Amino acid sequence: MLELRKKYKSGSAAEILREAILTGDIPEGISITQNEIADSLGTSRMPVREALISLEYQGLITRGNNQHVLVNAINYEYIRTVFNDMAMIEIESLKQMTNEKIIMLTECEEQINFHRMICEFTHAPLRKKMLEIFTEIYFAFVIERSDNVNQIQNAFMNLKQAVKNMNHEVIRSCYEEYSEILSDELMNIRERRMKHA
């Protein structure tokens, strides 16, 4: 039985479940019911049902029959795919930006805001929605919990410089390094959490 109410004192059902899945507090492959989740959170099924719709859309769970949900595998391959897809979409968005928008981006100091601006400047609705998920769920999770701030910041600064010069080959290379570092750090966060659990 899940013990989410004891571990997480505040947040919406979606926020608590997302955190628990990304940190590994709810293990991958586990099949649980809406009732079990509602009992664990001390809430009714309605907010749980809404949370599960959101989590499925974010790629964290798969909803099945009989109100059961399966927690998707959050392993290195999955996370690397998430950050590679984020990079691929951002690269395509950068190619379509005006010089004015590129200058605004390269003047941005905070990593999260840099990615939010790319999302804002992306015109294709599906790409924009995907970038919102990548940025606000996966990227924000890493940035808010990372112990490896310097390495991530250095990779970000290299990326920003490449964007400033608009050298597409270098941008692609910087994104590869950045994606790898972010993926490694997300997995490290999970491992640290599981050791202390």
Summary, kept brief:
By secondary structure, the protein is mainly alpha-helical. It has helices spanning 4-7, 13-23, 34-41, 45-57, 76-95, 99-106, 111-121, 125-145, 149-165, 168-196; strands at 31-33, 61-63, 68-71.
User: Which structural class should the secondary elements be placed in?
Assistant: mainly alpha
Helix content: over 70%
Low-confidence stretches: none
> What is the first-to-last residue Cα distance?
15 Å
Explained architecture:
The chain is mainly alpha-helical and 197 residues long. It is elongated. The mean pLDDT is 88. Helices cover 72% and strands 5% of the residues. The two termini are 15 Å apart. It has helices at residues 4-7, 13-23, 34-41, 45-57, 76-95, 99-106, 111-121, 125-145, 149-165, 168-196, and strands at 31-33, 61-63, 68-71. The protein has two domains: 4-71, Arc Repressor Mutant, subunit A, CATH 1.10.10.10; 76-196, Four Helix Bundle (Hemerythrin (Met), subunit A), CATH 1.20.120. It has a three-stranded antiparallel β-sheet. Helix 2 packs across helix 4, helix 5 (76-95) runs antiparallel to helix 10 and helix 8 crosses helix 10 (168-196). It contains ten helices and three strands.
